[in-house]
Amino acid sequence: MTILVTGGAGFIGANFVIDWLAQHSEPVVNLDKLTYAGNLGNLASIANDPRHHFVRGDIGDGALVARLLNGHRVRAVINFAAESHVDRSIDGPAAFIQTNVVGTFGLLEAVRAYWDGLQGEEKTGFRFLHVSTDEVYGSLAPTAPAFTEQHRYEPNSPYSASKAASDHLVRAWHHTYGLPVVTTNCSNNYGPYHFPEKLIPLVIHHALASKPLPVYGDGRQVRDWLYVGDHCSAIRRVLAEGRLGETYNVGGCNEKANIEVVQTLCAILDELRPRVDGQSYATQISFVKDRPGHDRRYAIDAGKLERELGWRPLETFETGIRKTVAWYLANQDWVQDVTSGHYRDWVERQYGQAAP
Ligand code: NAD
Ligand code: TYD
């Protein structure tokens, strides 16, 4: 038995693969295109684990996916691969359509052909788990109830629209072809290996580099934060016991305004790594131009996952954010490698071409 993880060199995928190998004996085939967001440094701790097979490639490459599925007799696919950054999707939406929509379509077709050829328990036990986001539901009013799985899809950014499209394809491949799928829609993650273009790692990095901490607009936008290890445990639960064709919301009941998150990070850094001049990192906060179409509030109701599958997060925001700051302080080499671009050198040496 083997699982195929796509996008396993990115933030959440790498955390998932590392956790999986720590908890299961089952091997992992890790298919990742190594875009700017993919970093084999995230997988350094399992570089010598013979159960981890890394393959550089595109989820849209049907022939490659077919070879991997057949060659390893894969029993489940967990699809993390995506373009994931909202600001980049505003700047250049084409890559988002290509990977999140066209790529997911190609992956579904390759998986369907493989699954069609399976027999007996191999066929009934097969799973395709699609990892998606709460952003497909759009923006909530300040006092509206949190998103349930029944909330209508109202994506507002090129990123969330492309993820919504991929969710619809996954749903249709189940409804029309019977492909055994489950989808998870998770809130904002944070934790180790988070690429420093996203709010939390960017603020930690800028704070330590004595740079301004950019807060978009009035900083009152609300996100519902979940520690990445808790997202990974939810995915394992849904993979093991999720009902076919269902979607499960994943979140930690940790709604925070962005400015509150930034102030919390500053306070923890003031304690763990005080500035040499004795001032607070909060003096570096700088309000900047808002993101176009910026969603005001996301909040997840994860009640279905708790009721049906008994999942609960282990971390509160307070424990998770402290662990995260400590991880970044202890892993400044990783941050340096990423922010300097050095992590791309290996890709170019290995593959002999400029990385995409
Ligand atoms: P990420 O950007 O850190 O990683 C994405 C990975 O996918 C990278 O390693 C990249 O190289 C790879 N990739 C991109 N295009 C590919 C392609 N065509 N073929 C193969 N690999 C490709 O993203 P992340 O934050 O780890 O998110 C992973 C998944 O979880 C995404 O589907 C995202 O939509 C979803 N999600 C993320 C969050 C969050 O807060 N980060 C929350 C909910 C859901
Ligand atoms: P981000 O980490 O990009 O995740 P998402 O857009 O998927 O929610 O951003 C989280 C929130 O932080 C979002 O409301 C935008 C805001 N933000 C800033 O205020 N400043 C920044 O520099 C960044 C990257 C994000």
Can you walk through the features of this model?
With 356 residues, the chain is an alpha/beta fold. The protein has a domain at 2-190 and 226-252 and 299-315 and 340-351: 3-Layer(aba) Sandwich (Rossmann fold), CATH 3.40.50.720. The protein contains 13 helices and 13 strands. It has helices spanning 11-23, 62-72, 86-91, 94-116, 120-125, 158-177, 199-208, 228-241, 258-272, 303-309, 317-330, 332-340, 343-351; strands spanning 2-6, 28-32, 52-56, 74-79, 127-133, 181-186, 189-190, 213-216, 222-224, 226-227, 247-250, 255-257, 285-288. The strands form 4 sheets. The chain has a 7-stranded parallel beta sheet with strand order 3-2-1-4-5-6-11, sandwiched between helices. It has a two-stranded parallel ribbon with strand order 7-10. A two-stranded parallel ribbon has the order 8-13. Strand 1 (2-6), helix 1 and strand 2 (28-32) form a beta-alpha-beta unit. Helix 4 (94-116) packs parallel to helix 6 and helix 9 (258-272) crosses helix 11. The longest helix has 23 residues, at 94-116. It is globular and about 65 Å long. Bound molecules: nicotinamide-adenine-dinucleotide and thymidine-5'-diphosphate. Thymidine-5'-diphosphate is lined by residues 86, 188, 198-199, 202, 214-216, 221, 223, 258, 291.
